[in-house]
């Protein structure tokens, strides 16, 4: 039974390599030809193209140094790409400025990785969410009720709004980070290894929550992870990155059962038996 | 502001955060600084002789003389009275420049740290130029060009402290900028005034306030130095630095007398440093609450 | 004959001021030559503290009770000097973060040679150097000569872990303790390092005590699995039995929480809530009670005792409960 889920991996590769699928015209986000070099000239990201449809979960998988976080930063406009462009909701992110950029960014939120740093240590968790609400123009008087509703939505008792992040468990902190991201009713959430640091039983809770929120709100998710099993569970499509390039992209179950790229196969065979 | 509902009573474990007692250093430092401030404020009410009025018949009386517990100076003025009155000018010289510099320096540092690369570069180069001058010389030059007096002395000190504060702030902001919650805030479209107000200021306040309270001690000493050079408080008025200058000529004939204003400078400096250390411990959120 | 390592009713409490954290609350387990015992648990379960207790590396404010025996000799009574003679020679340790166990300012070859010198395995410098290279190549290090001359920061995480493993087995220990040795590594590197552990254990005939939070790693490596929760053993037994037919709801939940093909999105079975903190008072009752969907009144009143399970091993749950792995959908759902 330890071979379960691995037998398929020995399936011979499909004869024709699937080209990176063309972004449909309805894509919510499409990144094309993204490149970023480190100051020493090494390419961190080398001609990466990705797209996400509305309400879709795209897994971005890779090992450390594969360029997946750098790609995410370029998509979020935290890093300026050396080449390539990011189109979100029909707008080129690089050309938008000022109030228009802020409005666009409200629709594009980030859930970071580490429970230790994803929330400001000097704000209570209520303030952490209130911040995002206020930053996007929620009237002061409406904030407490919205904060309570959002906390309740992610399964944190609203009575905990006055607590500080270091008083909460890692799973609770990541739930609050999710609530903060949801506070602007975004169309796309980027989860950068958002559940990777959590214990498995807590991770399961947060994954279930993410799936439920996604289903209810229809938000699209760019789910970055090194864990293929988690991505297989949560994502619709997956892009596998190695050495700054996307080596394989496609439907997550197809990639899982019949990986085309040798590296994807190696990655899959490295997963310890899941039972 | 944020929602801060009172935590409901819990069945599992107490949710209340018992606040730890304030750190001893904070209490001690705050009391010492308060005492200094009170001394300055109450000087006119205390039953002291006129600090500017000399009595040449009774010059250079040793400490402990009747009517003059700390003795008299070269012009027969009461040293205790001059020390107490001098607290006003000396504290002002210590606190005002630091307050001004901390506001300006924080502003510059936050703008440099959060602004575009070009803004950061511009601010940093200006700071580098200011840093290139030896600060004491710069202060002397500024004070000299503005003319002697308490105000020009404070202005000179503020100018030389701004780059020091800004440098600390820029470093802190650069560290913060890379943290996940800052990235989330930037990526999430929060404008920089919001980020500065909610995320940056609360996180740099500990470092800045600690650094600044240490600067007050330094500033009292620097201010005393400027007065000593004749660039500070004009002669009839009492100021500790000017008193050191005045009494140093008697350092061999009346050594105890010459030491008194120096001791006052030392005490004020230590008080502010202790306050700074107390603030540092107080701002440590994680130790402030039991975990 | 008794097993090589026997841990009997081990308790570890850390005191800081008035607070006492009960990290280990009575753990009994054993590890035998040629076998791999996996201690499986999540953070705060006490698994790492248990491993550190064997090495006597708990620090001064730890209070340790119970007994730890290696080859029949009690280790807890030994003084620091006797203990450090056994560390490295009889018991090797592979830590989670090799960066932390290697001196950043010294070449790694010299650090392995240092271990050999401290335990007088070789007496001449040249012989030690030679053996260090041999150990590195045994640990699957390509170009051992070049790596031996490197500083830790010049090596990748996988190579550093191989160096740490070479150092840990340098003196031919009878027992090798690996504390989350692959948690910080990439998946492909983890697979290689786990294969290395398997090979070394075969070649050197050691007992391997592997601490992990990863059910998959346990499945791959374990002969025996010991599942810990809140400082106690909740279940132990042959790996195949424990991981396929768990007899404790916690083990079952841990297995069910692992995402794998076939589970609909967002329907991972797991446990609600959080484990109790180490300062919580849970004497005389099952620590899983607030989270366990099968708990009955007796669970809060009686101490959970390990009782034999028909198919092998033992579990500390007297309540008959449906196995959520066997019957998908029957398990406790988290929201």
Quickly list its features.
heterotrimer, A: about 280 residues, alpha/beta, 6-stranded mixed beta sheet, 4-stranded antiparallel beta sheet, 10 strands, disordered N terminus, C: about 325 residues, Rossmann fold, 2 domains, 8-stranded mixed beta sheet, 11 helices, globular, disordered C terminus
The gyration radius over C-alpha positions of chain B equals 23 Å
Helix-strand makeup class of chain A: alpha/beta
- Tell me the β content of chain B: under 5%
User: What order do the helices and strands of chain A follow?
Assistant: EEEHEEHEHHHEHEHEEHH
Number of helices of chain A: 9
Largest sheet entry of chain B: none
CA-based shape of chain A = globular
The stretches of 5 or more residues of chain A where confidence is low (pLDDT under 50) are: 1-18
Oligomeric nature of the chains:
heterotrimer
CATH topology of chain B: MetI-like fold
Write down the secondary-structure element order of chain B. Answer: HHHHHHHHHH
Keywords (chain B): Cell membrane, Membrane, Transmembrane, Transmembrane helix, Transport
Main location (chain B): membrane
Protein name (chain B): ABC transporter permease
Membrane topology (chain B): Multi-pass membrane protein
Please explain how this structure is put together.
The complex is a heterotrimer of chains A (275), B (291) and C (335). Chain A has 275 residues and is of the alpha/beta class. Chain A has nine helices and ten strands. In chain A, helix 3 packs across helix 4 (143-153). Chain B is mainly α and 291 residues long. Chain B has a single domain, classed as MetI-like (MetI-like fold, Orthogonal Bundle). Chain B has ten helices and no strands. Chain C is of the alpha/beta class and 335 residues long. Chain C folds into two domains: 1-90 and 173-335, Rossmann fold, CATH 3.40.50; 101-169, no CATH class. Helix content of chain C is 30%, strand content 22%. Residues 325-335 of chain C have low confidence and may be disordered. Chains in contact: A-B, A-C. Chain A binds chain B through residues 73, 76-78, 101-106, 108-114, 117-124, 126-132, 134-136, 140, 143-145, 147-148, 157-164, 166-167, 177, 180-181, 184, 190, and chain B through 1-8, 15, 17, 179-181, 183-191, 194-195, 198-199, 202-203, 285-286, 289, 291.
Helix-strand blueprint:
The complex is a heterotrimer of chains A (275), B (291) and C (335).
Chain A (H helix, E strand, L loop, with lengths): L28 E9 L5 E10 L4 E5 L6 H8 L7 E6 L2 E2 L5 H9 L1 E4 L13 H11 L7 H11 L16 H13 L5 E5 L7 H18 L2 E6 L2 H7 L2 E6 L2 E7 H6 L4 H9 L5
Parallel strand pairs in A: 3-8, 3-9, 6-7, 7-8
Antiparallel strand pairs in A: 1-2, 1-4, 4-5, 9-10
Chain B lengths: L23 H19 L36 H36 L2 H16 L2 H12 L3 H28 L2 H8 L4 H37 L11 H8 L7 H29 L1 H4 L3
Chain C lengths: L4 E12 L2 E13 L4 E5 L6 H9 L6 E9 L2 E2 L5 H7 L4 E4 L3 H4 L6 H11 L6 H14 L5 H5 L8 H12 L6 E5 L7 H18 L2 E6 L2 H7 L2 E6 L2 E7 H6 L4 H8 L50 E2 L5 E2 L20
Parallel strand pairs in C: 3-8, 3-9, 6-7, 7-8
Antiparallel strand pairs in C: 1-2, 1-4, 4-5, 9-10, 10-12, 11-12
């Amino acid at each position: 039974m330890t071979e379960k889920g691995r037998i398929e991996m020995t399936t011979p590769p499909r004869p024709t390599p699937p080209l990176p699928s063309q972004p449909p015209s309805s894509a919510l986000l499409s990144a094309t030809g993204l490149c970023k070099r480190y100051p020493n000239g090494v390419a961190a990201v080398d001609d990466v193209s990705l797209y996400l449809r509305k309400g879709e979960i795209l897994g971005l998988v890779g090992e450390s140094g594969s360029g997946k976080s750098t790609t995410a930063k370029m998509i979020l406009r935290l890093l300026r790409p050396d080449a390539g462009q990011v189109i979100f909701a029909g707008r080129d992110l690089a050309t938008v400025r000022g109030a228009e950029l802020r409005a666009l960014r409200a629709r594009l939120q980030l859930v970071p990785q580490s429970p230790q740093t994803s929330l400001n240590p000097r704000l209570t968790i209520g303030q952490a969410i209130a911040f995002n609400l206020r930053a996007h123009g929620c009237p002061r008087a409406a904030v407490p009720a919205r904060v309570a509703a959002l906390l309740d939505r992610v399964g944190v008792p609203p009575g905990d709004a006055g607590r500080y992040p270091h008083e909460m468990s890692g799973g609770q902190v990541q739930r609050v980070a999710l609530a903060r991201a949801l506070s602007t009713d975004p169309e796309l959430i980027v989860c950068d290894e958002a559940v990777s640091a959590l214990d498995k039983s807590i991770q399961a809770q947060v994954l279930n929550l993410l799936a439920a929120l996604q289903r209810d709100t229809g938000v699209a998710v760019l789910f970055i992870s090194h864990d293929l099993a988690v991505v297989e569970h949560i994502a619709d499509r997956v892009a596998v990155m190695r050495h700054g390039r996307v080596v394989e992209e496609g439907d997550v179950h197809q990639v899982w059962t019949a990986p085309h790229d040798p590296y994807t196969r190696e990655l899959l065979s490295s997963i310890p038996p899941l039972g | 502001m944020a929602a801060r509902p009172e935590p409901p009573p819990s069945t599992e474990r107490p949710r209340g955060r018992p606040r730890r007692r304030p750190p001893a250093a904070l209490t001690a430092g705050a009391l010492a600084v308060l005492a200094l401030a009170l001394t300055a404020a109450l000087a006119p009410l205390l039953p002291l002789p006129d600090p500017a009025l000399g009595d040449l018949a009774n010059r250079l009386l040793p400490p402990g003389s009747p009517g003059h517990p700390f003795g008299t100076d070269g012009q027969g003025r009461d040293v205790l009275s001059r020390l107490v009155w001098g607290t006003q000018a000396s504290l002002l010289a210590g606190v005002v420049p630091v307050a001004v510099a901390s506001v300006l320096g924080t502003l510059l540092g936050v703008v440099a740290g959060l602004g575009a690369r070009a803004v950061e570069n511009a601010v940093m180069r200006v700071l580098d130029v200011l840093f290139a001058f030896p600060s004491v010389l710069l202060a002397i030059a500024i004070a000299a060009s503005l003319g002697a007096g308490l105000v020009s002395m404070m202005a000179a000190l503020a100018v030389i402290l701004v780059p020091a504060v800004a440098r600390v702030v820029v470093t802190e902001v650069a560290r913060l900028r890379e943290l996940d919650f800052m990235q989330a805030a930037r990526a999430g479209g929060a404008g920089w005034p919001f980020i500065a107000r909610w995320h940056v200021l609360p996180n740099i306040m500990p470092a800045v306030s600690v650094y600044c309270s240490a600067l007050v001690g330094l500033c009292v000493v620097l201010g005393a130095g400027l007065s000593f050079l004749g660039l500070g408080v004009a002669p009839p008025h009492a100021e500790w630095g000017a008193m050191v200058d005045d009494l140093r000529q008697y350092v061999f004939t009346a050594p105890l007398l010459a030491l008194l204003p120096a001791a006052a400078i030392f005490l004020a400096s230590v008080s502010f440093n202790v306050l700074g250390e107390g603030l540092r411990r107080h701002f440590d959120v994680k130790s402030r609450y039991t975990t | 004959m008794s097993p090589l390592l026997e841990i009997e009713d081990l308790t570890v409490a850390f005191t800081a001021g008035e607070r006492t954290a009960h990290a280990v609350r009575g753990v009994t387990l054993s590890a035998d030559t040629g076998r791999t015992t996996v201690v499986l648990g999540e953070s705060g379960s006490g698994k790492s503290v248990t491993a550190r207790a064997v090495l006597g590396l708990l620090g001064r404010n730890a209070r340790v009770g119970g007994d730890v025996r290696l080859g029949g000799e009690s280790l807890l009574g030994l003084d620091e000097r006797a203990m450090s003679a056994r560390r490295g020679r009889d018991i090797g340790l592979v830590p989670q973060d090799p960066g932390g166990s290697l001196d950043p300012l010294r070449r790694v070859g010299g650090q392995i040679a240092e271990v050999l010198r401290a335990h007088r395995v070789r007496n001449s410098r040249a012989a030690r150097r030679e053996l260090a290279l041999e150990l590195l190549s045994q640990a699957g290090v390509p170009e051992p000569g070049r790596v031996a001359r490197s500083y830790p920061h010049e090596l990748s995480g996988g190579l550093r872990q191989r160096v740490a493993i070479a150092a840990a087995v340098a003196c031919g220990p009878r027992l090798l303790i690996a504390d989350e040795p692959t948690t910080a590594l990439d998946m492909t590197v983890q697979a290689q390092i786990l294969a290395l552990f398997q090979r070394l254990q075969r070649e050197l005939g050691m007992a391997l005590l592997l601490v992990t939070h990863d059910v998959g790693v346990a499945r791959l490596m374990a002969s025996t699995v010991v599942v810990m929760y809140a400082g106690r053993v909740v279940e132990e037994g042959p790996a195949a039995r424990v991981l396929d037919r768990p007899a404790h709801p916690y083990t079952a939940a841990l297995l069910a929480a692992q995402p794998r093909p076939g589970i609909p999105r967002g329907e991972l079975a797991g446990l609600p809530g959080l484990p109790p903190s180490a300062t919580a008072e849970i004497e005389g009752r099952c620590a899983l009670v607030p989270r366990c969907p099968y708990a009955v009144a007796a669970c809060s009143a009686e101490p959970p005792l390990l009782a034999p399970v028909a198919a092998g091993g033992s579990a500390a749950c007297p309540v008959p409960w449906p196995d959520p792995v066997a019957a998908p959908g029957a398990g406790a759902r988290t929201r």
